[in-house]
Amino acid sequence: xTIVQPNDLQNTPSTxxxxxxxxxxxxxxxxYGARRGCENVSFDLYPGEVLAIxxxxxxxxxxxxxxxxxxxxxxxxxxxxxxxxxxxxxxCHMQEADxxxxxxxxxxxxxxxxxxxxxxxxxxGANVGERLMAVGHRHYGSIRSTATDWLEQVEISEDRIxxxxxxxxxxxRQRLQIARNLVTGPRLVFMDEPTGGLDVSVxxxxxxxxxxxxxxxxxxxxxxxHDLAVARLLSHRMIVMKDGHVxxxxxxxxxxxxxQAPYTQLLISSILQV
Length: 274
Ligand SMILES: Nc1ncnc2c1ncn2[C@@H]1O[C@H](COP(=O)(O)OP(=O)(O)OP(=O)(O)O)[C@@H](O)[C@H]1O
Ligand SMILES: [Mg+2]
Description:
Keywords: ATP-binding, Nucleotide-binding
Family: Belongs to the ABC transporter superfamily.
CATH architecture of the largest domain: 3-Layer(aba) Sandwich
Protein name: Putative phosphonate transport system ATP-binding protein
Shape: globular
GO molecular function: ATP binding; ATP hydrolysis activity
Largest sheet: 6 strands, mixed
CATH topology of the largest domain: Rossmann fold
Bound molecules: adenosine-5'-triphosphate, magnesium ion
CATH class of the largest domain: Alpha Beta
């Protein structure tokens, strides 16, 4: 697969940006000393597409996600991202300031542990408003009203806007994290076990909300999960990892209903037996 360079784009005026990959992950490997985190992972992600990365604990899911989202420098490989202006950038090797800007604007990251994604001792409204201020919004009234809108979209009632997330339940914190991430209108959201550690009923509500938001906003997303039900509900496509390698990939329904690799078959049957 050739990597599209900005110059090529100018030669293909009839190709809509929507038809070109948003993200091209090429041969990403990450070693922690001699220990393999992930090795030689490649895939494309298209606008509006949701990809699940599944696999047992230690299979390299978070390592891969952290490399793709520039939170960690891979040992080798590259990640090309198509910016809003159509140009393509190798995000792993961008300047730190440019990475941070991308993270604040066009990208979101929903952490499993909400304390990693929220400021626990400032109000819910400020958690959402802060992202808006980071992209240049200055008018207090409009920041507050946008924050209120977003809290409503994630089903947090307006009268909690001045409360701090440390006083919220686990499910509410995750919903607040989602609002904080989506308020700047990102095109790509990374999620690492977004429903991990929550009660089953809380998980179901959060998944339902996420699925609706992602589809209504046409977001592209990469969701790391060890829960195949989460992959089934949220993703169009999935990759299965084991020991840092991709064992199988394909459309989610195909992989789950007709797994080809013996490891995927085992993973699915062992989950179904639980
Ligand atoms: N900071 C680190 N230093 C050394 N080894 C690490 C580090 N982080 C991860 N690893 C190793 O890399 C491999 C992949 O770990 P990773 O955390 O990416 O897996 P995972 O699939 O996200 O697991 P989990 O489902 O438990 O979160 C494991 O062998 C792990 O021990
Ligand atoms: Mg992990």
